[in-house]
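SUBJECT: A protein chain and its fold
Encoding: whole-number codes for local backbone shapes
RECORD BEGINS BELOW THIS LINE
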Amino acid sequence: MSESFLAKERTIASPDFNRWLVPPAALCIHLCIGMAYGFSVFWLPLTKALGITTSIACAPDMSWWDKLFTTTCDWDKPILGWMYTLFFVFLGSSAALWGGWLEHAGPRKAGFVSAICWCGGLLLSAIGVYNHQLWLMWLGSGVIGGIGLGLGYISPVSTLIKWFPDRRGMATGMAIMGFGGGAMIGSPLADKLMKYFATPTSVGVWETFVTMAAIYAVFMFIGAFAYRVPPTGWSPAGWTPPATQAANTMIAKNHVHLNKAWRTPQFWLLWGILCLNVSAGIGVIGMASPMLQEIFGGKLIGLDLKFDQLSKDQLAQIATIAAGFTGLLSLFNIAGRFIWASFSDYIGRKPTYFIFFVLGCVLYALAPKAGHAGSVALFVAIFCVILTMYGGGFATIPAYLADMFGTQMVGAIHGRLLTAWSTAGVLGPVLVNYINEAQIKSGVPKAAAYDTTMYILAALLVGGFICNLLVRPVAAKWFMTDEELKAERQLAHDRAAASAVRGGDAAVSGAGSQSQGLVLAFWLFVGIPLAWGVWVTITKAMVLFK
């Protein structure tokens, strides 16, 4: 693969390019890296990687350091669960470190590197499982794969916003929807593959890693090579900003450099908005299954019994129902990413986040009452709406950043902001787990042990409301001068609309003469796997309504 083929100059759109080819290219990458959310499907089989049918327990006094290298006993779920922390810490840190490089190198090169890291990380993890070396799995998927997550996550953001200045929220919502949907496809696929590869001497995990790495490589390379960027100054044919948008002081007309953006109060207010919204939502995702089981107990299967009174078979029944609940939350998480981000194009980003924080605070406060009233339907409905706003918060923030700081370096600025996600990935689960554990140890019944947690999560959203309230337009002193903007565009290898295409005088319409059949085929290429994942999720969720 030559350097020139990956160069940003080679990705400038031709006159007949259709901009609707860019969202499925982004989905090709996001649907693959989104499997990070579904990695828990491997934990139970990996706890039996050596014992195959039953887990071989490690010595009680074995340190976690020794567990990284042991080949004589199986890993436990807590130490495997650290993979999530590695994922989101390295996602945020890599996006922050290399976001500026991405703006200069372009989305194709970033997508290509992301594919190498994510798929290569899976292959290294397969070697780790085969040789029973946990440190190799952490290094492979956690560190190297986490870097791939960060680069893949932000690779399409700037490009999509520039292709869709008329629908910024919708464009980023389509791509980031894919990250939420990755687990919906990857988890059931991994489950089927592990069952297929399982033998008397293998639980089928390392073989599944290899297979999924190959599948993901195909999708991610196709997505990376399909990226195109619009020439500088491009806008959709015949489109001009509405008068209301042109007069909106919350939508910047100029651009802020990455090196200055993080020094503005607006950046840190948006950082707080994302961190607090995600901390609350990720806390719910992490405890969704045990929360439903412990609050409703036997009521889930028509019995007036508390959770601790259920038999082994009854516990298995409600665990299946809880799995359906978790799947349903994933579906609403994905839907919210597209719906709320698109809605923000009409009412604005700041009002959208006000809805998230006000409605979310009310729903978190009402959840304990629904639990005590024994209303499963109301409880499930509350958390489904909450998860739409969790996903919507992720999908709307890139457009909010573009409104505040302009579009020239929005991908890099978004990368820096994702450190808020890394922080929330630690804060949310730790806060929820420790509060719940402390409540139970103090004698609070399991059915009521989540009440305090819900009120604290509601308080986090109050903090987010205050941050959003304080957001103001960026002061003029932070914007790049014409000379600085010209220099930045030269570094980014941008070309003006008049000279970006052959002959220098052809216009890039963005809607144009490329075969509509190609657009349809590309959308089917990503849409069919996504539809399959949705169908599997809905099928599993139906147990909630039987």
In short: DSSP finds 21 helices and no strands in the chain.
